[in-house]
Design a protein that fits this description.
This protein is α/β, with parallel strands linked by helices. It is built from 11 helices and 10 strands. Strand 9 and strand 10 form a beta hairpin.
Length: 278
């Protein structure tokens, strides 16, 4: 499943579902949690189930409510029979939370995308996701719930960059996802109007090793898709690396275009070509 862009859509706004598909997002996240007030959750569940039962054109995940909430069981009962492509699990706390969701959902549980950084306890479980990798679509993080949980004023500096504690959380999520061998999904960029800032944020995520990103508005999708799609120059270089090692089997390192490349570069090249579908 290609997951460069995952677009959130409030579950109680079904008139937006088709518009979200038209954005070009690789997947939708139909939300039953934060964007839906408690009194509207029953209507949102019904709307999502109806949409999933139709002819969906892109993969659709459903963000359920936290497992320890009064809403999670009703969320699962409402949507699982319509077979969502995945579940987004908020307030996840490592592999144990994933296993608990699998148990609650039953044998037809779809793949799970945990939001892995929303509680203090979650930070100490970021290295456990490899234990539940078979159930995962990826691992992602969030920068809003955690500061609220610990009474921090913000997760960001005045220029919008993350403060040191949240840079650490971002990095641990990135490495936790790769340790599990699953997609590392960058968190949202909240300033919808800041197109230049979004492009820089996407470029930074791609540079650091994230493979996709969540979006909160359809206008963000094209920039995210472009940023997480390898360009022709990157593809040509990756092919050259692969071809060079193929022509020199058993070689640990060699010179390419005047620079030394070794086996980690070969691994990077193969991963990039895989992301490009090549």
């Amino acid at each position: 499943m290609k997951l460069r862009s995952l677009l959130f859509v409030p579950g109680d706004r079904p008139e937006r579902f088709a518009k979200a598909v038209a954005s070009g997002a690789d997947a939708l996240i139909l939300d039953l949690e934060d964007s839906v007030a408690a009194e509207k959750k029953p209507d949102a569940r019904a709307a999502i189930a109806a949409w999933l039962s139709g002819d969906r054109q892109v993969p659709c995940f459903v963000r359920i409510n936290p497992l320890d909430s009064e809403h999670a069981r009703a969320d699962l009962d409402a949507v699982l029979s319509a077979r969502p492509d995945g579940l987004v699990l908020p307030k996840a706390e490592g592999a144990a939370s994933v296993r608990r969701l699998v148990e609650l959902a039953g044998p037809d549980c779809p793949v799970i995308l945990p939001i892995a950084s929303e509680t203090p306890a979650a930070i100490f479980q970021l290295g456990t996701y490899a234990e539940a990798a078979a159930h995962l679509a990826g691992v992602t993080w969030g920068a809003e719930d955690l500061p609220a949980a610990i009474g921090a004023a913000s997760s960001r500096n005045a220029d919008g960059s993350y403060t040191a504690p949240y840079e650490m959380v971002r990095a641990l999520t990135l490495f936790g996802a790769h340790a599990a061998g699953v997609a590392a999904i960058e968190t949202v960029y909240p300033d919808i109007a800041d197109t230049e800032g979004l492009a820089a944020y996407v470029a930074r995520g791609q540079r650091d090793g994230f493979t996709g990103m969540m979006a909160i508005h359809p206008a963000q999708v094209a920039t995210i898709n472009a940023g997480f799609t390898p360009d022709e120059v990157q593809i040509a270089h990756a092919r050259a690396v692969v071809q060079a090692f193929a022509a020199n089997p058993g070689t640990g390192a060699l010179k390419l275009d005047g620079k030394m490349v070794d086996r980690p570069h070969l691994q990077q090249a193969r991963a990039l070509l895989a992301r490009a579908g090549l």
